[in-house]
Amino acid sequence: MSSTNVDDLLRQATQSAQAKPIGMSGTELMATDFPDPPWLVDELIPLGFTILAGPPKKGKSWFALELALSICMDDKFLGRKTTAGKVLYVAFEDGPTRMKNRMRRQGWPQRAADNITVVFGREFHENFGSKDGIDKFIAYIKTGGYVLVVIDTVARAFQVRDWNDAAAVIPVLGPLQELAIEDSISILACDHHNKLRSLDLVLDLAGTVAKSGVADTLIGLYREQGKPGARLVVTGRDVEDVTLEIEFDALSGCWQPVDPSPKITQQQQEVLDALQELGGESTLGDLAKAIGCDKANLYRRLISLSQDGLVTRGRGVWKLT
To answer: Tell me, which fold does domain 39-257 have in CATH?
Structure first.
């Protein structure tokens, strides 16, 4: 090929590049219809890079494994719809025996087990522990067709000397976040809380705020010692702030949402039934006669019911709401 032809080709390429506008005008942006952000768990966990953090040994691994089960089963998670698919689970906290026992406790059927690949710590470091390990790991994820990738925990997966050093953290977590967004998958990185316990997801996250800056979504699992209940706090770029009360069932190894409706005692139900029979409203005296109890005791029951929003008081009578 002559130098003249080469020059012509370069000139044409340059003109073509110059002809194509760079960027998008505000008018074009406003006129473009974009799809709603996809969800891994409906209205709770969007696709993207998510950090799940909490104190050690408070149920994060159980939470992540239960989430994986829901994805593999095309089943609901915490009562919410999920995106079904294959799962890659990188396990540093649990060895093969413990992982098997946990899956048995959660009741993993064969069809769910067929959809999960578990990579344990030693195998992970053997294959992805080199200097270019993050690139190899990303290439491995891309070949698997996974919807969810769990890394439990991110601090044990990658050789970062100081997680307080943003310059060291971003080159590791940044490529994972980019992969999750570009390939429309979810990467859930389990991590630890520091000792603040402030219910501020950024402040409570162990290490630098660079972690929270990279993450698309932050999830905090707050659980008091010795209590089955916990508070799940979620915030992120594509999700409204969410707080859920959940409870751990040790028998099944699963987290369940706590029913927010007030618990009615037998004595309180007796009051509600009597009010219903009296036409939905009654004076304290008439209601006490109908039930056959003293006014002081009945008054305490009515106050409790009013605090739960089940009855109201006005002009000398109590009414059903």
So the answer is: Rossmann fold (3.40.50)
pTM of the model: 0.73
Give me the CATH topology for the region 266-320.
Answer: Arc Repressor Mutant, subunit A (1.10.10)
Contact 99, 118 (CB under 8 A): yes
**Domain locations along the chain:** 39-257, 266-320
Look up tokens 């089963």; give the residue: 73
Q: Render each residue's pLDDT in the chain as its tens digit; 321 residues.
A: 455 566 666 666 566 555 567 888 888 888 888 777 789 999 999 999 999 998 888 899 999 999 999 999 999 999 999 999 999 999 999 999 999 999 999 999 999 999 999 999 999 999 999 889 999 999 999 999 999 999 999 999 998 888 878 888 899 999 999 999 999 999 999 998 877 666 677 777 766 677 888 999 999 999 877 777 899 999 998 888 999 999 999 999 999 998 766 678 888 888 898 888 888 889 988 998 888 888 888 888 888 888 778 888 888 889 888
Hey, what are 27's tokens?
């008018």
Q: Which amino acid is at 153?
A: T
- On whether the CB atoms of residues 132 and 41 are closer than 8 A, the answer is no
Phi, psi of 283 (to 5 degrees): -75, 165
Contact indicator for 109, 72 with CB cutoff of 8 Å: no
* Among 182, 232, 228, 204, CA closest to 45: 232
